Amino acid sequence: QVQLVESGGGLVQAGGSLRLSCAASGIIFSINAMGWYRQAPGRQRELVATITTGVETNYADSVKGRFTISRDNAKNTVYLQMNSLKPEDTAVYYCNADISTFTRRTYWGQGTQVTVSA
Fold first, then answer.
1. What confidence tens digit (pLDDT) does each residue in 39-96 have?
2. Which pLDDT does position 42 carry in this prediction?
3. What is the DSSP letter of 74?
4. 63 and 49 in contact (C-beta within 8 Å)?
5. How far is Cα 3 from Cα 23, in angstroms, rounded to an integer?
6. Measuring CA to CA, which of 67, 79, 81, 87 is 20 to 30 A from 52?
7. Cβ neighbours around 104 below 10 Å, total
8. Is residue 39 within 8 Å of 31, Cβ to Cβ?
């Protein structure tokens, strides 16, 4: 059974930094695209950043220049480096990954809370 486990969330002051990690485990043949999404209270889940196997990246306009997504294929892990954090970045952050096992589907992590104080 495949699992995605996030870590690295927490409370930080505006202007600070956090690094999120998400590790995939289980029977995995290959991991295709990976990404980070977030959901603030009362709002829909939104895309933050994605990264392909060819390390092509895509970012939401609201985080461009502040956040960096990367991956370590040897560790089946995706990272999100978040700098210059703003109160509006406060949300639960979820990772997802398109994973091939005996089938191919998208998996989600359980989420990690990021809170940015003014």
1. 999 999 999 999 999 889 999 999 999 999 999 999 999 999 999 999 999 999 999 9
2. 95
3. G
4. yes
5. 8
6. 87
7. 11
8. no
**Residue tagged 């196997």 (tokens):** 53
Which pair of tokens denotes residue 107? 């998996």
Question: What is the rounded distance in angstroms from the CA atom of residue 83 to the CA atom of residue 38?
Answer: 16
Task: Read off the pLDDT of residues 8-27 as tens digits, 9 standing for 90 and up.
Answer: 999 999 999 999 999 999 99
Q: Could you identify the residue written with the tokens 């995605």?
A: 4
Q: For the chain, count helices (H), then strands (E).
A: 0, 11
The phi, psi pair for 52, rounded to 5°, reads: -90, 180
Residue whose structure tokens are 């096992």: 101
What is the rounded CA–CA span in Å between residue 37 and residue 20?
A: 12
Beta bridge partners of 20: 80
